[in-house]
């Protein structure tokens, strides 16, 4: 059995004050409705857990009803940090689940092919992540003002979601993070902590995340082209 955990409990502060980016309309639907729909359409996913802010449960339930998001789902309250929200989601998946795909709620263009590819890679390797090779030249700066050195671009990848795992692997990895009192910016970093190999899965189609207002026009274009 395969579960999806959609992390939708963040505040999205870079969009501006009092703006919930997940409910901004793009291509006729709220951003998070598109994200959710991608996993409804993925035949390899059997259930969906959506991690939300406390007080938003009714808004998400109404969203599911309005947009026909009818695959079995549960709403779970998020935690203080992203890794806490992911943990709460993991605690709520079916005990029969063997694979879990963890997805940003603000990443609405993820293709079914990419979801399926990360699931297959996670079955084989234990952990997999959607990623793209970096095409820009990347500089490192020690003080944020001056260039310290140029990083070797051929070795750099920008990771995205879904980040997909055997359930026992990600539980073990996040348990190690929690026991050490650490914070990680993504779930594969927890796997690195325990020495778990992570397969990079490169998708063909763009898979952007809504972070700042300027992202919306590009994502609108992608979603309308998809239709």
UniProtKB/TrEMBL annotation:
<feature type="site" description="Transition state stabilizer">
    <location>
        <position position="21"/>
    </location>
</feature>
<comment type="pathway">
    <text>Isoprenoid biosynthesis; isopentenyl diphosphate biosynthesis via DXP pathway; isopentenyl diphosphate from 1-deoxy-D-xylulose 5-phosphate: step 2/6.</text>
</comment>
<dbReference type="Pfam" id="PF01128">
    <property type="entry name" value="IspD"/>
</dbReference>
<dbReference type="GO" id="GO:0019288">
    <property type="term" value="P:isopentenyl diphosphate biosynthetic process, methylerythritol 4-phosphate pathway"/>
</dbReference>
<feature type="site" description="Transition state stabilizer">
    <location>
        <position position="14"/>
    </location>
</feature>
<comment type="function">
    <text>Catalyzes the formation of 4-diphosphocytidyl-2-C-methyl-D-erythritol from CTP and 2-C-methyl-D-erythritol 4-phosphate (MEP).</text>
</comment>
<protein>
    <recommendedName>
        <fullName>2-C-methyl-D-erythritol 4-phosphate cytidylyltransferase</fullName>
        <ecNumber>2.7.7.60</ecNumber>
    </recommendedName>
</protein>
<keyword id="KW-0414">Isoprene biosynthesis</keyword>
<keyword id="KW-0548">Nucleotidyltransferase</keyword>
<dbReference type="InterPro" id="IPR034683">
    <property type="entry name" value="IspD/TarI"/>
</dbReference>
<dbReference type="InterPro" id="IPR050088">
    <property type="entry name" value="IspD/TarI_cytidylyltransf_bact"/>
</dbReference>
<dbReference type="InterPro" id="IPR029044">
    <property type="entry name" value="Nucleotide-diphossugar_trans"/>
</dbReference>
<dbReference type="GO" id="GO:0050518">
    <property type="term" value="F:2-C-methyl-D-erythritol 4-phosphate cytidylyltransferase activity"/>
</dbReference>
<dbReference type="InterPro" id="IPR001228">
    <property type="entry name" value="IspD"/>
</dbReference>
<keyword id="KW-0808">Transferase</keyword>
<feature type="site" description="Positions MEP for the nucleophilic attack">
    <location>
        <position position="153"/>
    </location>
</feature>
<comment type="similarity">
    <text>Belongs to the IspD/TarI cytidylyltransferase family. IspD subfamily.</text>
</comment>
<feature type="site" description="Positions MEP for the nucleophilic attack">
    <location>
        <position position="209"/>
    </location>
</feature>
């Amino acid at each position: 059995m395969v579960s999806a955990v959609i992390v939708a409990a963040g505040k999205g502060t870079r969009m501006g004050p009092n703006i919930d980016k997940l409910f901004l309309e793009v291509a006729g639907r709220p951003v998070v409705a598109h994200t959710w729909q991608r996993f409804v359409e993925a035949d390899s996913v059997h259930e969906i857990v959506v991690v939300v802010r406390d007080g938003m449960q009714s808004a998400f339930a109404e969203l599911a009803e309005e947009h026909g998001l009818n695959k079995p789902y549960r709403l779970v309250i998020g935690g203080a940090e992203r890794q806490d929200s992911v943990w709460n989601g993991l605690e709520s998946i079916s005990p029969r689940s063997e694979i879990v795909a963890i997805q940003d709620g603000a990443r609405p263009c993820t293709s079914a092919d990419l979801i399926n590819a990360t699931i297959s890679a996670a079955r084989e390797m234990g952990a997999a992540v959607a990623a793209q090779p970096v095409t820009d030249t990347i500089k490192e700066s020690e003080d944020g003002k001056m260039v310290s050195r140029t990083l070797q671009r051929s070795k750099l990848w920008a990771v995205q979601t879904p980040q997909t795992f055997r359930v026992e692997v990600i539980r073990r990895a996040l348990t190690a993070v929690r026991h050490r009192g650490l914070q990680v910016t993504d779930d594969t970093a927890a796997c690195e902590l325990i020495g778990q190999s992570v397969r990079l899965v490169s998708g063909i189609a763009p898979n952007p995340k809504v972070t700042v207002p300027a992202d919306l026009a590009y994502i609108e274009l992608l979603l309308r082209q998809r239709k």
